[in-house]
Structure formats: C-alpha cells, structure tokens
Design goal:
The protein has 397 residues and is an alpha/beta fold. It has eight helices and 16 strands. α2 packs antiparallel against α3. The chain is globular.
C-alpha cells in the first residue's frame, strides 16, 4: 500500500515538471468527453512539398488542390462592319486619280521635197518640257484616217479671194479617203455649219457647191476659229482644221489674245492654214494700190495664219497660183496621215493649269543633232513639226 502511493506521487511530480518545461504554465486538465480530438502535427521527416506545387502539406494532412495556370483572356470578337446605304437619290461614286500623260504628234518633213521622213526610231527623238528632258514611254508611227473641219472664209470682199477659197476647198475634197470624217463650215459676219461630220463625200461636194453668193463683207476670223475649237474640244482623238482664209479680222467679238489662249487650251487639234488672195495682193502692190496701213493689215493677217498653224504643229501656205493647190494638199495629207506619236509622263506632275513649252529634237545615237544625207551624200534639211506646248489640267478637271 505504501509502495503504490509512492509511485502515484512520483508520476504526478513528473507530469507537473513536463508541463512547466514546455511553456512554464500549467495546462488545465479537461475530461476526454469535453475535449475534441486535434489533428496531430506532421512528423519532422514528413512531406513538406508546397501546396502550390501540387503536393500535400504532410503525409496525414489535408489534400491541397493545385492552382491552375492563368490563361490569357480571349480577344473580343471583331466589330461588325457598318453597313452604309446611300439615300435613294444618291448613287455610289468612284474616285479616280489621273496620272498626267502627254501625247505628241510629230511630223518630220524634208524642206526641199516636203516628203515625210520614215524609218526613224524612238532613240532619234528627244523631248524637252520647259527645257527639261523627258523620258519617252511609248513610240508609234501611224497612218490613219483623219477627222477634219474645212473652215472657209466666204464673204463679199473680193472675187479673187472667193476664187482661191473655192479652188482650195475642192482640192482638199478631192484628196479625201472613204474612211475620213469631214465637216464644212464657213464664216463672214457669222459662222455657219454647212454639213456636220460625215464620210459621205457627196455631202461635202454639195456644201461646197452651195457657196455662190456671199452675204456680208465682215470677216470675223477670231470668232470662227474660237467657235470651231470649242466644238472640236468635245470630240475625242486627234482633229484637224483646214483654215482657208485671207487672215483678216474685221468685226469679231473675240480678241486675238483670247483666240491664242483657246488654241493653247485645246488639246489634240492641228491647224493648217491656206492664205487666199495672194495673187491679187501681188498685182495691187505692182500698181501701188497696196501700201501703208493696208499693206500692214495684210502682213498682220499672214502672221496670224502662220501663228495658228505653228502653235498647233501644223503648216501655213500662201499660194499664188491655182496649180499649187494639189501639191499643197498632198503635203498636208502626207503630214497628217504619216506621223510619229510620242508619249511621255512629265516630270512636273503638278496640275496647276500652267502652259508647258514642248520642244522636239532629232538626235543620233550619240545624242548629237541628227544629220540627214541623200544618196549623193548631200546634207538634207528637214523640219520637225510638233505643237509648241500644252496646258496642264486643273485639279477640278
């Protein structure tokens, strides 16, 4: 009995010392019925893998679910394209950008024989625009039908002028080809269309046969040329004007400056001028009846006809005898039916409406001026016929 009490006391002393060593405080004792069973701590050698890496915190611990990697959010669906519907009265439109292209018709004629010079190549042509060389992008030689207006002066001025006009008009009509389009117009005080563009040569002959008795003495040349160019500007392609006139203007509403501006602004039109009344003027000069202001008036008329032709790349003729007419129109036909067509894109692309000067030169393979010789090695002179410039478009055109 005494030994049992001694053992019990020793056990109580050991328990008290263990409690003081762990915290220095005594742990209240509770009965097993009221104290919940706590989860035992993991042993020192247990699995210490982090839950973030997918392992449990210990052998007997709770299972940790690994975290999923964050996925990037899907891009939002593209916005639907707006459906634009024009009002019923407004149709769809298209935007066009014009790249400037310049076409230059060039005729090369021998001065002595007035023959067309064939067999020239692209390398033989040099084009300058405002003094700057241009790159030729296209080169062709054409022999095609013509679209021409025969514009004649028919006024009650002088019989010799009317006689020369009729001879020139008939000579022109005789050299027309079946596929040519020709219109006939006359002018005195007013401009009159005798026949519109036609391929029927009988209508051309009937129009010329109707020129019997003139009405007015006025010769409104500037008005007639301006109106003719205005009508031709509505027709596509290359056009020609055969102007048979004395060159005098008496009562036009349009001034010479405005006519020259119209010529510069009208593309693809070439004027060939035939001056009438040359023999009558020569006879008047021999009798002393053509001097002073009257002579200056006719010299100015010749200069106007020459200017119209030169500015458009044409030629002017002043025949004195009826026998010259067939050769003149043969040369005109040879010039307008046989041409070189050069195309280039100007380095100056501004669309500012300015007038650009064009100069066409013939060169050899080394870039020197081209020299022509006949079979006897004699040097041949030639004329390069081309318009002297063009007017650039405006942005609104």
């Amino acid at each position: 009995m005494c030994r049992m009490l001694l053992c019990l006391s020793f056990a109580l002393v050991c328990a008290a010392s263990d409690a003081q060593g762990s915290g220095g405080q005594s742990v209240p004792q509770s009965t097993p019925q009221n104290t919940p069973q706590s989860t035992p701590a993991p042993p020192p050698g247990g699995d210490q893998t982090s839950p973030d890496q997918g392992g449990p915190g210990g052998d007997n611990g709770a299972i940790a679910i690994p975290k999923k990697k964050e996925q990037p959010a899907p891009p939002p669906p593209p916005a639907a394209e707006p459906v634009i519907k024009n009002p019923p009265e407004l149709s769809n439109y298209s935007l066009r950008v014009d790249v400037p292209v310049v076409n230059v018709d060039v005729g090369v004629i021998l001065e002595k024989t007035h023959q067309f010079v064939p067999n020239l190549q692209q390398a033989n042509f040099r084009i300058l625009e405002d003094g700057k060389p241009q790159q030729v992008t296209s080169f062709n030689r054409i022999q095609a039908p013509i679209t021409a207006v025969l514009l004649t002066e028919f006024a009650a001025t002088n019989y010799y002028f009317i006689y020369d006009m009729r001879n020139a008009a008939y000579a022109f009509a005789e050299q027309l080809r079946p596929d040519d389009y020709v219109a006939v117009m006359t002018y005195d005080m007013h401009t009159e269309i005798l026949t519109d563009f036609t391929q029927d040569k009988r209508l051309v002959a009937q129009a010329l046969n109707s020129l019997i008795i003139p009405t007015w003495q006025e010769t409104n040349l500037f008005d007639a040329v301006y109106e003719t160019l205005d009508r031709l500007s509505r027709i596509d392609g290359r056009k020609y004007v055969v102007l048979v006139s004395s060159g005098r203007d008496t009562f036009s509403k349009i001034t010479l400056d405005k006519v020259l501006q119209k010529i510069k602004a009208t593309p693809n039109v070439t004027i060939f001028s035939i001056g009438t009344g040359q023999l009558a003027r020569l006879m008047a000069e021999s009798r002393g009846g053509l001097s002073g202001p009257r002579e200056i008036d006719y010299l100015q008329a010749d200069n106007q006809l020459s200017s119209f032709a030169r500015m458009t790349g044409g030629e002017s003729f002043f025949p004195r005898f009826e026998g010259e007419m067939p050769d003149i129109f043969h040369e005109i036909n040879n010039s307008i039916r046989n041409q070189y067509v050069l195309t280039y894109r100007p380095t100056n692309t501004r669309q500012d409406g300015t007038y650009r000067k064009i100069q066409v030169q013939l060169v050899d393979n080394e870039g020197n001026p081209l020299r022509m010789q006949d079979e006897k090695h004699k040097q041949l002179k030639y004329d390069v016929i081309a318009r002297d410039g063009y007017r650039a478009k405006l942005p609104v055109q």
